Amino acid sequence: MNAQRRPLIAGNWKMFHGGPGACDLAAQIAAGVEDLDHIDVVICPPFTALAAVAAELEGRKVQLGAQNLHPQASGAFTGEVSGPMLVECGARWVIVGHSERRHQYGEGDDLVAAKTKAALDVGLRPIICVGETLAERTGGQTLAVVQHQLEAVMPMLERSQGQAVVAYEPVWAIGTGHNATTAQAQEVHAMIRAQLRQLSSQLAERTRILYGGSVKPDNAAALLSCPDVDGALVGGASLDPHQFLAIARAAQPA
Ligand code: PGA
């Protein structure tokens, strides 16, 4: 972490807690971060729980995010949810380009870029996910793959002036219990920041780069100690308030 950038811990609940359990989990997290300052905590429940969780978080420090959005503001897109609808529900953040969407729903770089633009158009702060597969890592392509994914959203990152966040999530680390080492994470995070520096050094210093992939209480402090790791995007451990709060505490500046 770097004192210039406010740490951010985001929980991606995926397709869990879409009903009444969401408010209970949100309330426990909100109570647990009351005494934490100088850190942003975001939770991203399923669409069906957004409005209820927004009401639960009223006046609390935890911020609300969604997990996806459609690139159009409205239209005949059965089953989809747009950026303006997320804003109406109380969301202020949205995850785009998560590897589960890239790989299971065929979302490519152009669609991720369109969704990022749609988010910024309505004032939602995007958490843009990038990351290589195991085959790409073992093939020595990690930096090239991440660079290419980032290239597609560079105009949006420039426009956002540090409001958007990048999350480096190696696909092989997601949900597997095999997190990247600190050296692996720092190498990619430094490369991402160097790429941002090509646009402007101010943008590079401002933009937060999260690490995601099997972040747990026992590895969070080490990962967060890397100079270019500004926070974490947490999946499995964000469903357990004790684990998620322990990770948030590890990110709290001394
Ligand atoms: P994980 O998921 O923490 O369960 O590995 C991370 C993510 O998918 O964002």
Which SSEs are present, and which pair or pack?
Elements: E1 8-12, H1 20-32, E2 40-44, H2 50-56, E3 63-66, H3 83-89, E4 93-96, H4 99-104, H5 109-121, E5 125-130, H6 134-138, H7 142-151, H8 154-160, E6 165-168, H9 182-197, H10 201-206, E7 209-212, H11 217-224, E8 231-234, H12 241-251
Parallel strand pairs: 1-2, 1-8, 2-3, 3-4, 4-5, 5-6, 6-7, 7-8
The chain binds 2-phosphoglycolic acid.
Descriptive notes:
This protein has one domain (8-251): TIM Barrel (Alpha-Beta Barrel), CATH 3.20.20.70. Helix 7 runs parallel beside helix 9 and helix 11 runs parallel beside helix 12. It has 254 residues and is α/β, with parallel strands linked by helices. Helix content is 43%, strand content 14%. Strands 1-2-3-4-5-6-7-8 form an 8-stranded parallel barrel, surrounded by 6 helices. It binds 2-phosphoglycolic acid. 2-phosphoglycolic acid binds at residues 12, 169, 174-175, 212-215, 233-237.
